[in-house]
């Protein structure tokens, strides 16, 4: 059967006047970016010393002619060469390849997206992978993941950035049972998982299956920005979806949006984490029923109230979600607590009328609705001393000032955020900041799932001294705290932060608590207010008060900000307005 698949495809190359080595599928098969293969393993690229798509095509033909058994290594190449009308040896017997085809069927191919996890450097932008599913010859329905990742074995952020951005980390390309990924992301890490089934025909799925075999033992370095889980998945998909377009820096969200733009999504399925279900239901379930669920799971009342209709259905769903969260996060760590949870689950009210209701998640929050995760900004800033033109570029991420309503919680993630300002009057150019990495999570605490807020950043910033004179300084900053939901749209938070500044004139540790609030308003508007006093030995206390107001527009935003910095009776006031374009 696999031999029939190998020759059943239409001869797209034969009908094309373009030479086979210039065809998009051949270039995709070699993982070429900007004329250079991103995979440099000599076991995969045969012409490493003098590479070109044409020379690789010819080298592959010679290899197959001289060593027909090498076809077993490159069945996808053989398929494309065959479609071009090139004379080739017959396909040899390949026992290991045959076993792979039987064990990893591809009746369905999907993109899997696991939501962001800011506590894990390798998953702070989420994680993307492919899934292959189908019925094996023995009747078993097999589901496999196709994933590329690295293992970060250091808590030193500078080392992590160096290895993943400059040096490269050892990457792992694995085809393994999908269930293990779901258990890790959905249960252990409490992350939502989306499955986007792709509309591919049998020939496309067979070609992709062959290429997965070709990559099974290839060595690939992991780079956070150019060779990550999303870029490798995009390279695989371009083999069968040539209209898939992405930028040079591809994040997991970028991949999902690119697949959506290609029109190849057949269906969408979400597997929500128990923690997310609890928080979602808190936005829906009446407060008195939430109180009843809390008292019930705490043992303060023996049973839940008997409620009919929609409220009864929501009560059942919330009670089940709370118990699922307890079980999945290890709260039930003793035999007694596990028996208690089992007894509670048996006591959850149920009714045949609940079958008339369904908890739909399609329109609640979706990765497809988030703003693009890179942007340019330019605008105007006014201070007492002079006026400035400002320019900012964020390579990857988003800020608290952005519209984050589609994320699981309010958060910030910035990788390589460069902000400059220029004064035509003074003929001066200044660095506002160069953030190498910034992560902030303002997850509201709730009584069912808890929730800790945190802040961490590393980079170069404009530091004001006691006389409000500014110099650039290296800074490592971090802290933890709590966020509370004052209403559906208003959040209050407090963080206990501290850090270290270093430049030619300064080298000091400091404490910088922060209190603030953010409010989502009508017409896509958002306000963010924060107060940050800084205390450091042998330095005067600085007090910063900042108000940021943003208006979300179509693929852009208008952001206005006013701030006041006070040091020993001296003040620095600033006001700015910036237009931000997301891409």
Automatic annotation (TrEMBL):
Disordered: annotated segments: 327-351
The record places domain DUF7840 at: 372-582
- An example Pfam family from this entry, by short name, is DUF7843
Domain Lnb N-terminal periplasmic positions: 100-261
Q: Where is the DUF7843 domain?
A: 22-83
Q: Which InterPro entries match?
A: DUF7840, DUF7843, Lnb_N
Superkingdom, natural source: Bacteria
Name the UniProt record assigns to this protein: DUF4105 domain-containing protein
């Amino acid at each position: 059967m696999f031999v029939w698949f190998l020759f059943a495809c239409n001869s797209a190359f034969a009908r094309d006047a373009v030479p086979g080595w210039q065809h998009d599928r051949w270039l995709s098969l070699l993982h070429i970016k900007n004329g250079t293969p991103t995979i440099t393993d000599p076991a995969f690229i045969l012409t490493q010393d003098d590479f070109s798509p044409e020379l690789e095509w010819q080298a592959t033909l010679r290899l197959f002619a001289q060593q027909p058994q090498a076809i077993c290594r490159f069945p996808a190449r053989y398929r494309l060469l065959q479609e071009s009308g090139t004379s080739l040896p017959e396909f040899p017997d390949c026992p290991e390849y045959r076993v792979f085809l039987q064990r990893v069927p591809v009746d369905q191919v999907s993109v899997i997206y696991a939501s962001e996890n800011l506590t894990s450097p390798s998953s702070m932008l989420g994680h993307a992978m492919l899934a292959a599913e189908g019925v094996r010859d023995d009747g078993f329905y097999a589901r496999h993941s196709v994933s590329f990742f690295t293992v970060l074995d250091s808590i030193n952020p500078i080392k992590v950035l160096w290895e993943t951005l400059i040096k490269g980390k050892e990457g792992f390309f694995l085809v393994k049972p999908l269930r293990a990924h779901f258990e890790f992301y959905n249960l252990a890490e409490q992350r939502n998982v989306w499955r986007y089934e792709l509309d591919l025909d049998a020939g496309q799925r067979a070609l992709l299956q062959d290429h997965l075999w070709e990559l099974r033992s290839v060595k690939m370095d992991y780079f956070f920005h150019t060779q990550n889980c999303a870029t490798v998945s995009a390279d695989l998909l371009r083999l069968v979806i040539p209209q898939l377009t992405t930028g040079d820096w591809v994040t997991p969200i970028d991949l999902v949006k690119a697949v959506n733009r290609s029109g190849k999504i057949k269906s969408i399925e979400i597997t929500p984490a128990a923690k997310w279900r609890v928080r979602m239901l808190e936005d829906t379930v009446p407060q008195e029923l939430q109180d009843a669920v809390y008292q019930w799971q705490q043992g303060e009342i023996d049973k839940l109230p008997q409620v009919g209709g929609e409220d009864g259905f929501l009560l059942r769903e919330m009670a089940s979600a709370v118990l699922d969260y307890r079980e999945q996060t290890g709260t039930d760590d003793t035999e007694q607590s596990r028996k208690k949870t089992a007894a509670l689950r048996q006591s959850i009210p149920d009714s045949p009328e609940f079958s008339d209701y369904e908890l739909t998640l399609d329109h609640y929050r979706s990765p497809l609705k988030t703003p693009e995760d890179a942007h340019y900004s330019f605008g105007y800033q006014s201070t007492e001393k002079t006026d400035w033109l400002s320019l900012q570029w964020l390579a990857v991420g988003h800020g608290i000032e952005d519209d984050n309503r589609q994320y699981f919680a309010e958060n910030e993630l910035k990788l390589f955020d460069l902000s400059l300002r220029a004064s035509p009057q003074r003929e001066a150019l200044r660095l506002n900041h160069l953030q190498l990495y910034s992560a902030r999570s303002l997850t509201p605490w709730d009584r069912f799932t808890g929730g800790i807020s945190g802040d961490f950043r590393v980079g170069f910033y404009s530091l004001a001294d006691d006389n409000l004179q500014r110099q650039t300084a290296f800074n490592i900053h971090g802290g933890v705290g709590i966020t509370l939901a004052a209403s559906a749209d208003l959040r209050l938070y407090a963080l206990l932060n501290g850090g270290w500044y270093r430049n030619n004139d300064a080298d000091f540790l400091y404490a910088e608590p922060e209190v603030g609030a953010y409010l989502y308003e009508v017409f896509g508007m958002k306000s963010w207010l924060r107060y940050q006093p800084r205390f450091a030995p042998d330095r005067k206390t600085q007090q910063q008060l900042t108000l940021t107001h943003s208006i979300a527009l179509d693929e852009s935003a208008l952001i206005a900000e006013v701030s006041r910095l006070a040091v020993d009776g001296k003040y620095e006031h600033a006001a700015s307005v910036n237009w931000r374009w997301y891409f």
